[in-house]
Amino acid sequence: MSERELLISGNWKMNHTHFEAIQFVQALSALLRATPLRAGRALSVHPAFTALRSVQTALESDGVPVALGAQNCHESEKGAFTGEVSAEMLKKLNVSYVIVGHSERRQHFGETDELVRAKADIVLRHAMTPIVCVGETLAEREAGEAKGKVGRQLEAVLSARPPAVVAGMVIAYEPIWAIGTGRTASSEDAQQMAAFIRATIGHVAGADAAEGARIQYGGSVTPDKAGELLRRRDVDGLLVGGASLDAESFHEIALAR
Ligand code: 13P
Asked: Residue 14 domain-assigned?
């Protein structure tokens, strides 16, 4: 278990209308009142853009100890980008964390390492924290290329940044073969890759950056797998997809030890 604050994040992907999202927050709020988080843990939820405003209001009016997150943003300040959402718009909704470079965006929307870096830039410029996703495919893992792939993804997004900035970032290790497949990485695999990610941060941005940055694991996290993952030294939190859609299972994951 690390000494960094653990961050457990729910990535709702394209699920929950704003009505469903409000119901989720009300349910989670009641669960957290009954059984609060232990010290050293933080939560974030990442609704679709259409539910951000409703979730913000529900969290703030009830004083729910959960940060608001987004799943993506555009890399430009503003302009003629029909259908896109800017970092400034998110910041105005009190969004704290923005996921960038999720593998689904890299895969289905052609996001490159350069674009992911530009998105991290604009998130940081607006004083929010990027959750930068990295991870390898099954073919890459089987070919022994997992570390090479993840190392390149990290270098592209982290190089030439002040160490203090890198220290404040969150990296989510999400092996693509584990996402939505029910095939969670073993806690040993998660620890090994998290340790590799920390070492790479150290090479790119120095020891203080490596010590401060938080590394999440994501990919088929469930309440019964969460505790074992969170006990690993270099795993500082979880990025949860499917199991974060239900308030009870997300709450169980948040409490896991
Ligand atoms: P699942 O937990 O549904 O596998 O999704 C993981 C993920 O992609 C979180 O960003």
From this structure: yes
